[in-house]
């Protein structure tokens, strides 16, 4: 095998590994059904938020009793966001998103997180 072929094969393998590291197929929040309970308000701290992996959503509470929901899939590489405090943070490549709007605060992501509407019923957070 020539050096050029070897380097080309290694580059292709690295690209596949990079996609796999970001979780392969990005989560599809639109698969979550309306009316589904996605989490509990007790899990979402004021001024921060929580990632609900089973529903592929991140729910934030920027201010007391103001709940916002966004896709948990980073718009840069499809990784699931991992941390939520004063920003929604994707640790795969360092993108950060605003907890009130889902807008990009720090790249490399260029697009905001997709927003969803939720209703609160007692402690249940329900996708509208």
TrEMBL record:
Q: What does this protein do?
A: Iron-sulfur subunit of the cytochrome bc1 complex, an essential component of the respiratory electron transport chain required for ATP synthesis. The bc1 complex catalyzes the oxidation of menaquinol and the reduction of cytochrome c in the respiratory chain. The bc1 complex operates through a Q-cycle mechanism that couples electron transfer to generation of the proton gradient that drives ATP synthesis.
This chain's source organism reads Nocardiopsis tropica
User: Could you say which residues form the signal peptide?
Assistant: 1-21
Keyword DNA repair applies = no
Which parts of the sequence are annotated with region: Disordered?
Answer: 21-45
Chain ranges of the Rieske domain: 36-127
Keyword field contains DNA damage:
no
NCBIfam families from the UniProt entry: TAT_signal_seq
Tell me the protein's name: Cytochrome bc1 complex Rieske iron-sulfur subunit
Q: Which cofactor does it need?
A: [2Fe-2S] cluster
InterPro entries tied to this protein = Rieske_2Fe-2S, Rieske_2Fe-2S_sf, Rieske_Fe-S_prot, Rieske_Fe-S_prot_C, TAT_signal_bac_arc
**Which key words tag this protein in UniProt?**
2Fe-2S, Disulfide bond, Iron, Iron-sulfur, Metal-binding, Signal
Domain of life (superkingdom):
Bacteria
Among the Pfam families in the record, one is: Rieske
